[in-house]
């Protein structure tokens, strides 16, 4: 019998890593607690959430309708939360985990900061996670692998750091993955970079999903991508050293002019100065 292929060994290793993750507390379903705490953690300078009031939190859903901006309901439960581009600041409350039926969480294009709460991993129905274009910091939680239905992870244009968790490669339904323009580092996980099975050798996600992270490397990024000198850096160094030598030679000329001028301005010291002058 042939030994198992390399990726199979990797898979087993990753499964072990998943089992070692701290198990999240089973979140209690409570849309009211979820929404009121999400609201409390947000700053809303343009008052977009004007009807996120206590009365509306108490009964956020009426069958399939909601009275809260950005909330979509399904059968009396919060199903989608879409608050994109509302100039919201503040952080993402970990109580988001109590909206246990959440399928879409879109908080993109705001000014949110702080971490991605690892409590998101309790959202077992989550299919779409779009937190792009904010100022989120800290790592990408490996616990997201527990959201087995994730189709879309869009985290581009934030300030996320650390490496991309290998575990995310196990999300088989993932069709969009974008972590471009962050501060991520390390090797791109092979299970996100390469497809397996019959399509092995084809990229699973394009380089465009990974660009804009200075210390991230490996396929599908071009070799040495971001590690060697970029064209901009080379041009910069060229211009900088050109300018520096210009300044240096200008200074040298000035000094030389001064030194050669001095005998004329101080006729009394003529003899002394001319002794110091080098012979040309
Ligand atoms: C919200 O979920 C957390 C676990 O994530 C649980 O500890 C807490 O009791 C829940 N809150 C309510 C009010 O259901
Ligand atoms: C709450 O605000 C949204 C958007 O401004 C609006 O569509 C919705 O009808 C409002 N709901 C109520 C009950 O006023
Ligand atoms: C995430 O939201 C932004 C807008 O805020 C949008 O441009 C982008 O397409 C969304 N990502 C996905 C994968 O739909
Ligand atoms: C991933 O695919 C690229 C391009 O086909 C290939 O060069 C690389 O060796 C593959 N990596 C793995 C671990 O299979
Ligand atoms: C990668 O880019 C090619 C074209 O450049 C496109 O056809 C393909 O759909 C892209 N794949 C993904 C996973 O985005």
UniProtKB/TrEMBL annotation:
Cellular component, GO annotation:
plasma membrane
Q: Where are the transmembrane segments?
A: 231-257
- Enumerate the subcellular locations listed in this protein's record, separating them with semicolons: Cell membrane; Endomembrane system; Membrane
Q: Where is the signal peptide?
A: 1-27
Q: Which UniProt keywords apply?
A: Cell membrane, Glycoprotein, Kinase, Leucine-rich repeat, Membrane, Receptor, Repeat, Signal, Transferase, Transmembrane, Transmembrane helix
Give one GO term, molecular function aspect.
Answer: kinase activity
Q: How does it sit in the membrane?
A: Single-pass membrane protein; Single-pass type I membrane protein
Coiled-coil intervals: none
Question: What's the domain of life for this entry?
Answer: Eukaryota
Q: What is its main location?
A: membrane
UniProt-listed Pfam families: LRR_1
Q: Which PANTHER family match?
A: RECEPTOR-LIKE PROTEIN 12 ISOFORM X1, RECEPTOR-LIKE PROTEIN 44
Q: Which family does it belong to?
A: Belongs to the RLP family.
Q: What is the protein's given name?
A: Inactive leucine-rich repeat receptor-like protein kinase
| Annotated source species | Canna indica (Indian-shot)
């Amino acid at each position: 019998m042939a030994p198992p292929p390399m990726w199979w060994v990797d898979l087993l290793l990753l499964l072990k890593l998943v089992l070692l993750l701290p198990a999240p507390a089973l979140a209690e379903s409570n849309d009211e607690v979820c929404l009121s705490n999400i609201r409390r953690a947000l700053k809303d300078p343009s008052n977009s959430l004007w009807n996120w009031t206590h009365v509306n939190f108490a009964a956020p859903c009426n069958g399939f309708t909601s009275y809260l901006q950005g909330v979509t309901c399904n059968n009396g439960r919060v199903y989608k939360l879409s608050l994109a581009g509302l100039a919201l600041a503040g952080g993402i409350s970990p109580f988001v985990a109590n909206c246990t039926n959440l399928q879409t969480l879109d908080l993109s294009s705001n000014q949110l900061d702080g971490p991605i709460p690892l409590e998101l991993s309790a959202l077992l129905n989550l299919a779409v996670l779009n937190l792009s274009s904010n100022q989120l910091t800290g790592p990408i939680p490996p616990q997201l692998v527990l959201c087995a239905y994730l189709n879309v992870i869009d985290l581009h244009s934030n300030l996320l750091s650390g490496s991309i968790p290998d575990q995310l490669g196990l999300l088989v339904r993932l069709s969009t993955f974008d972590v471009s323009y962050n501060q991520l580092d390390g090797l791109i996980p092979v299970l996100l970079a390469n497809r397996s099975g019959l399509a092995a050798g084809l990229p699973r996600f394009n380089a465009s999903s990974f660009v804009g992270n200075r210390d991230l490397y490996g396929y599908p990024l071009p070799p040495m991508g971001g590690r060697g000198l970029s064209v901009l850096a080379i041009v910069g160094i060229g211009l900088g050293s050109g300018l520096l030598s210009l300044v240096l030679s200008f200074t040298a000329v000035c000094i030389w002019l001064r030194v050669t001028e001095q005998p004329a301005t101080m006729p009394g010291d003529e003899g002394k100065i001319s002794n110091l002058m080098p012979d040309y």
